[in-house]
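Pasting as-is:
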Amino acid sequence: MPLGARTAVMGILNVTPDSFSDGGQYFETDKAIARGRDIEQEGADIIDVGGESSRPGSQAVPEAEEIRRMLPVIEALARSVKLPISVDTYRASVARRAFEAGAQIVNDISGFRFDDAMPNVVAATRSAIVLMHSRGTRETLHKQARMEDPIREVREGLAFSVEKARTAGVPNDAIVVDPGIGFGKAAEESLEVLKCLPVFSKLGHPLLVGTSRKSFIRAAISDSLEAQNWGTAATVVAAIMKGAHIVRVHDVKQTRMLADMIDRLLD
């Protein structure tokens, strides 16, 4: 899919009972499938299906459970929607099963750090990859010390992930990078990363930004649903104006309108 002429919207579909924003809302398979179809109708360009929450305080789920949650949803959506489907996982075996079911993209919060087999799976299946910057292990993602130089550390981390992809034979045009707002970053660090997005564009790959309903927004303005929603809208606009090619969000319909207007202003 072409990236750059029009901001792409990635709609979040959490098939989990404990995600920080919509945990349990689409945990039942039928509800998740219906939501996936709604995401397409609301104007998304990609559907991102996740079977394990990565919110602060969450626990890893067994591989078999992650597959059980996601696979029926991916299989059904692959037959009924025209959008590419992304699988939000850091496990190579889960990604392989998702690709067999009809997914075409893997969204790896570890940037190839958690599973050494993931780069080869992505290359062998000729799939696309979103490499997100994060810090620490799965258990310590949100327990990291402050960074001395957040922009340098994020840039270097993403460059390392990109090199792993290239070494495995993943084509350059199949790679997207994500600076990982909120992952292993204090609220102030997330804001700094968001302000400096053009730095990460210099890596030479399209940029995905996910700020939707994240805790750094509540820390910056107010811990309320209204602040969360309007804060998300503000950060989405800022991300697009600073060069994001893809924005990952819960509220697809509203974001599609925002993105279309900002695209017109920047045209």
